[in-house]
Amino acid sequence: MNNKSKVIKADDYSWDGVERKQYKTDTNNFKEIHRFTLLGEDISQLNSETRYFEIQPGGYSSLELHRHPHSVVIIRGSGTLVLENELHDLKLHDVVFIAPETIHQFHADKGEPLGFICIVDRYRDRPAIPDDQTIQERITSEKVLKKIQK
User: Fold this and answer.
1) Long-range contact list for 82-85, CB < 8 A, 24+ apart?
2) pTM score, two decimals?
3) Quick check: is 71 in a domain?
């Protein structure tokens, strides 16, 4: 474990020594998204992980929910967020708090990449994909139902 202070230099939304990874490997309910774990995997003093996600135009994250909260800061482009039964337009420097057990999904649907920093607890539950019954019970907005990708 490397527990020394450090600076990770960035160049055009990539970081020295940080691997660009597939978003997930155990599902296929996402499109055109990658992640970088910037801090937390190799620093035992941190109780959190700082990650960067980038969704290419037309792509989206998985529709999911989980017990842990997390925070998001938009640092590239714009898009739309499904947050339970609402749609939210996102733009540069917007900040999002996602409460536990909230259905959510990010979309790069404005013709440009959507990039965001996401901070989560180091020790957290795995995301769950809401089943059809949960979606029917919790999402009644026709606009949201048309937007979500499963």
Assistant:
1) 82/106, 82/107, 82/144, 82/147, 82/148, 84/138, 84/139, 85/138, 85/139, 85/140, 85/141, 85/144
2) 0.92
3) yes
Using the Cα atoms of residue 120, residue 6, residue 37 and residue 58 in order, give the sign of their dihedral: positive
Partner residues linked to 49 by β-bridges: 120
The predicted pLDDT at position 24 comes to 77
Count of domains forming the chain: 1
- 70 carries an active-site annotation: no
Q: Is residue 96 part of a domain?
A: yes
Is 5 a member of any domain? no
What are the tokens at 116? 């965001």
Which residue in the block uniquely carries the two structure tokens 């959510």? 104
3-state secondary structure 94-137: CEEEECCCCCEEEECCCCCCEEEEEEEECCCCCCECCCHHHHHH
- The string of pLDDT tens digits covering residues 36-62 is 999 987 777 888 999 999 999 999 999
- What range defines the domain where residue 101 resides? 21-147
Exactly one of 74, 83, 118, 139 is catalytic; name it. 118
| Residue at 89 is within a domain | yes
**Tell me, what CATH number does 87's domain have?**
2.60.120.10
Each residue's pLDDT tens digit, 114-126: 999 999 988 888 8
